[in-house]
Amino acid sequence: MKTVVAIYTGQGLADPLKAVFKEVLPDIRLVNIIDDSLIGDVVKAGRIPEGVARRLVQYYHHAEELGADVILNTCSSVGEVADQARGLIGVPIVKIDQSMAAKAAAEYGRIGVLATLPSTLEPTLRLIRKEADLLGKEVVLVNGLAEGAFDALVGGRPEEHDRILLETAKRVCEEADVLVLAQGSMARMEQSLREATGKPVLSSPRLGVEQVKSVLKQLESNPS
């Protein structure tokens, strides 16, 4: 049985992602490492503090010790730490938003990126730009920061969070061919945003797990 270790910086995505794994990769052993202090420290600093980066790398090492065949980094805010850590870790690290960013860059020219935190928006914009550069393609990126939505969510007002996100999506969709949800926790709104805007909407959880499945197949085909 293959083992996937998913590393979380907060609590919100673990249960929804577990359900996606059960559907896409029902026969793997899934281990979750959750440290919800990580996203709190990132939000407070407005960037990735050195302490957060060090703790994440330690968790990647712990994942190796747990027998991970693949590590899934589930937080878009810290994906660049995963990039830097790949040379230190002996198993593949999949970033949950990599496939989403690649799909957006490959298939669309004007890409609206929705996020409730600047610390997630900026890395996602950079990732999509990087994927477009790899394709030799020019894309237009539209900033879709839903200001106030994150505070509403952590303040126990999910309806207000959803309202702000919906209003932001309606504004951004006028300039975009597709909407990209920068945070995996926003995936629950994918269908409602699609219906409200009439535009394609991409979210990361399923695409990320499908990439994990692809990497596991490659490992089976090319054991080392």
UniProtKB/TrEMBL annotation:
It holds the Pfam family Asp_Glu_race. InterPro entries: Asp/Glu/hydantoin_racemase (IPR015942), Iso_Racemase_Enz_sf (IPR053714). Belongs to the HyuE racemase family. This is Aspartate/glutamate racemase family protein. It comes from Cohnella boryungensis.
